[in-house]
Amino acid sequence: MFYYDLLHKGKTSMIKIKRINEAKEEIKRLEERKLDLSKVMPSVEEIIESVKKLGDKAVLSYTKIYDGVELKKEELKVSNEEIVDAYKQIDKSTLEAIRKSIKNIESFQKKQLQELWFTKIDEGVLAGQFTRAIESVGIYIPGGKASYPSTVLMTAVPAKVAGVSKIILCTPPNPMKKIDPRVLVASKEVGVDSIYKVGGAQAIAAMAFGTETIPKVDKIIGPGNIYVTAAKILVSKEVAIDFPAGPSEILILADETANPDYIAIDLISQAEHDPEALAILITSSEELAKSVLEKINSICKDIKRKEIIQASLKNKGIIIISEEIEDSIELINRIAPEHLQIMIKNPLDIIEKITNVGAIFIGDYSPCALGDYSAGVNHVLPTSGYAKVYSGLSVRDFVKVIDVLYCTKEGYSNIANLAAILAKQEGLEGHAKAILLRLLK
Fold it and tell me: How far is CA 233 from the centre of its chain?
């Protein structure tokens, strides 16, 4: 076992280097990481029940308590005047970036839509599918320390492409009773129908049950803090949700051909999200590992959100030396990271062996930070190991898939006896008679 701080003659480094066979304890923690919502569940349950019973009154009360903003009922919904004013507050380059990003995301999402299709099951038997959009969706956009117009695009564009007829959005107001103008402009450009100044668990409850001002929706999507995640899970019996979301995660697989400057800043780019963000490098090169750590320490001397980055790298950062590529692939699939960057000599040779990740980014010029904004792929991705069972957000999250069966008389006669046999085996006489009657006719 070795730690990079030894190379600094006793100085403590933010992130440690371990060989794969010496990191079993750390790997086990990574593999078993889960969101612990137990501490917040009682208070979130109380918020949900209060909003369910009292509607706007509860929403306004919790907005005052948790956001420190005292709103009137008529101020909950963002006005047209506020949206017009938002356009005046952003520069042309930001507006252009929003519009071009929308086009890129639309292009990628449209490719995922399926038209009506049929396949031949037997002579005269056709089975197929088509999709129909969910009628209404509620989007949650986090606020607080940062603004996320990009998340508006990532959530609302797929909904629009899918054909959702009603899209509302909730996001917490700032102390001046305002919503970030970039969020408002992004919402307007995408075509969100209405925006509400409410955050936290109370926003989720309002969209799940409806209030006098905020309408009930069929599905709630979007990331948030631990209270928002807990609320989404609790209301999932009432409405559909996307998936639980936790702190950001990045895992980079690199060999000696990778650029240590790129790796260092890519790890930092995700670490800056949250002190609990995950930042992992798996590499076959000890020399690269040490170089990356030197770069990280250098960059962190003078960077915004320095404290968050340092806390993240110290708490959840690790560099693992793995000489065998098969061991590295197995480890990736066990950890199931949100973002995987592959920076090795022949990345396409291994991509089909990767089974558990939120999204994959290949090569020096495909950082996940680019995917967070304007490349078309979605940045709302499963974290905390949920990539083992969930996909990233897409147009498919906003549609229902409907099966279709068409049999000709001849086709029916080809397969009816098979179904009748199985129906009789299950003791369902009505099923069997319904099938056989048509043969007799």
Answer: 15
